[in-house]
Amino acid sequence: MERDKVSVIRKGTCMFKGKFLGRDAVFGDDMILVTEKLRDTSCPKTINFVEVMSLTRADLWDVADKFPDFRARVRKAQITLALRRAIVQEAQRLRREEQRGQNRQSMTFTRRFQNLRM
Question: Which fold has domain 5-113?
Fold first, then answer.
């Protein structure tokens, strides 16, 4: 699966992260994120023949350039998704550290996220 496109299922069924997806289901919507480590690497598995429609990141931004209001909405979604993913990843990292007894509480919030770009 290419990671720079969003896909919508038109026909068929697939399994994605333990859930069945059918007609009009969407996957790959995190293609708007720039940071690779914030993107989901899961790949859908087809149950039967699946027909999908796809939109690449380049095509999305081409359309967004023509419609400033749409571009602002996509940018807001990009920031929101990046922030959510970064918080979840940081929480998982802190939980792993706590389980190992290596929790560094002196590290500031800013330092924890300084290496992440949206």
Answer: Jelly Rolls (2.60.120)
Model pLDDT for residues 57-107, shown as the tens digit of each residue: 999 999 999 999 999 999 999 999 999 999 999 999 988 888 887 555 545
Give the length of the chain: 118
Domain ranges of the chain: 5-113
103: helix, coil or strand? coil
How far is 35 from 83, CA to CA, in rounded Å?
11
DSSP symbol at 74 = H
DSSP 8-class letter at 104: -
pTM of the model: 0.72
Q: How far apart are CA 87 and CA 112, in angstroms?
A: 10
Of 72, 3, 73, which is closest to residue 35 (Cα–Cα)?
A: 3
- Residue 89 CB-density burial (10 A; 0-12 exposed, 13-18 middle, 19+ buried): middle
